[in-house]
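Structure in, sequence out. Go:
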């Protein structure tokens, strides 16, 4: 197995905080460990940012904002394009780094590097397409000009489950729009963000435009920034619980907010579904990232005529997966992020079993170092089980059977979340009607994968506010300015 002292790790480990275009030590000193979830052992220490470092980074962002907003769009575009090329050139190192700190298998980490790189390329193309408007007022007496300007210094906060892509999905549109930024990555996975900062620096990003502050204690760092009146935008990806807290803090200084929050995705397999496609889709929607994805299929509803066959085929596929450290070549399922995550998954499975569910495969944590949980299929899951209401965030597929279309759509919508839903049917009218009625921001129609940098990603209800990616992704970092002028 590669050691954490490989070139990949050395590239990011040992760096200090990235503030104002330089690697600097934290004002109060101090560091915290980053663990390898495949072993439970520490990989390295990273510098621990505190309140004063937050202030320094904010000053750098505020100081750089005006000049950065005035750069030519082509200049910002070319920085992003160079960063895209460097990320691809370092794909193997970045993938290994991500696997070490987060646990996902190398093949998936390589996929995430490509996905993250694509945000850099997509927004390099969008940077030069920021437009405005011109209109004659209805009474003919005025000319109405509309321009779009960067919203200003932005605070970006990311989770641990997609360590590179979640940062790139925020940083790239902010750069394209002309905003400066302070990024706080998740403490479990700061290395990928530090590596990305280094790459953007090499690509020519001016000093102060991006600072990266890993911290073991986010509250005292983030709250003063949100209340400062100088941060004009917060873009958060993480749990709904933390999102609510940040929204409340942002309200005080009326900070524009984008929230990419949790999900509880329904996965619907109708009687007229192609079973091969449905099983493939379930494998993708459930097992990507070991189930640690906001888009993960959380509640699998299968028509009663197919439920047994579907459960059997899904269990066969799940049982054939190879569980182990993500750095090993044949491994397809890595560890969960930490002991608490594994404990939560175990408790959810125990609750479902106590309410009458049957284990078709898996069902328990693995007795080995690291935080592994066996790929699990449960059938006969009662709808009042805790795992129907909570984000499972693990490799557990609960199957519930249904009979009636209207009833299953109601059940699918019976949650405070609304990020994504999956629909499997070969009937076009049913596909469109169900997709329309699902209360979600995204639908996978006969596919288990919706993420695409060219598409607007995001949810409704308590899954969030705003969209990332696609043509609209840059809008989150722009404001409209309207200029009125009389006709001469
Ligand atoms: P989390 O616990 O909400 O943490 C997310 C980030 O917020 C981390 O960097 C965390 O740092 C930080 N944070 C926590 N408390 C904070 C505070 N008081 N002030 C400022 N920052 C604070 O979520 P997670 O466990 O990392 O990620 C999993 C969640 O993210 C799931 O709910 C998943 O569905 C969601 N997610 C959503 C999307 C999407 O696009 N909709 C994508 C990926 C993940 P600390 O860890 O130090 O607390």
């Amino acid at each position: 197995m590669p050691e954490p002292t490989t070139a990949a790790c050395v590239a990011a480990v040992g760096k200090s905080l990235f503030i104002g275009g330089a690697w600097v030590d934290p004002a109060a000193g101090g560091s915290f460990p980053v663990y390898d979830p495949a072993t439970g052992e520490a990989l390295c220490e990273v510098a621990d940012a505190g309140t004063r470092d937050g202030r320094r980074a904010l000053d750098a962002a505020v100081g750089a904002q005006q000049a950065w907003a005035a750069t030519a769009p082509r200049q910002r575009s070319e920085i992003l394009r160079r960063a895209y090329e460097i990320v691809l050139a370092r794909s193997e190192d970045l993938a290994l780094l991500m696997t070490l700190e987060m646990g996902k298998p190398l093949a998936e980490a390589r996929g995430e590097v490509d996905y993250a790189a694509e945000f850099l390329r997509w927004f390099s193309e969008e940077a030069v397409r920021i437009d405005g408007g011109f209109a004659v007022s209805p009474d003919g007496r005025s000319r109405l000009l509309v321009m779009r300007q960067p919203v200003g210094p932005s605070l970006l906060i990311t989770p641990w489950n997609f360590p590179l892509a979640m940062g790139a999905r925020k940083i790239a549109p902010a750069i394209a729009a002309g905003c400066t930024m302070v990024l706080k990555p998740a403490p479990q996975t700061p290395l990928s963000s530090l590596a990305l900062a280094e790459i953007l620096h090499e690509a020519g990003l001016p000093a102060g435009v991006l600072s990266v502050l890993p911290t073991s204690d986010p509250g005292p760092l983030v709250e003063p920034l949100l209340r400062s009146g100088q941060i004009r935008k917060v873009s958060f990806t993480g749990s709904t619980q933390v999102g609510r807290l940040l929204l409340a803090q942002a309200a005080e200084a009326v900070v524009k907010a984008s929230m990419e929050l949790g999900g509880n995705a329904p996965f619907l397999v109708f009687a007229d579904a192609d079973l091969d496609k449905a099983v493939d889709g379930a494998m993708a929607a459930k097992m990507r990232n070991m189930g640690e994805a906001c888009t993960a299929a959380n509640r699998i509803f299968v028509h009663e005529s197919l439920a047994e066959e579907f459960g059997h085929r899904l269990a066969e596929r799940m049982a054939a997966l190879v569980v182990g450290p993500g750095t090993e070549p044949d491994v397809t399922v890595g560890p969960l992020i930490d002991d608490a995550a594994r404990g939560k998954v175990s408790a959810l499975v125990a609750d479902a079993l106590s309410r009458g569910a049957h284990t078709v495969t898996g069902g328990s944590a693995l007795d080995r170092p690291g935080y592994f949980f066996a790929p699990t299929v449960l059938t006969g899951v009662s709808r009042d089980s805790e795992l129907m209401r909570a984000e499972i965030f693990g490799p557990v597929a609960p199957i519930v059977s249904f009979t009636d279309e209207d009833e299953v759509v109601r059940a699918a919508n019976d949650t405070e979340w609304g990020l994504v839903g999956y629909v499997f049917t070969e009937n076009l009218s049913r596909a469109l009607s169900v997709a329309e009625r699902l209360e979600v921001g995204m639908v996978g129609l006969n596919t288990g994968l919706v993420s695409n940098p060219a598409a607007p990603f995001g949810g409704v209800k308590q899954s969030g506010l705003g969209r990332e990616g696609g043509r609209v992704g840059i809008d989150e970092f722009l404001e409209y300015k309207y200029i009125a002028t009389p006709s001469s």
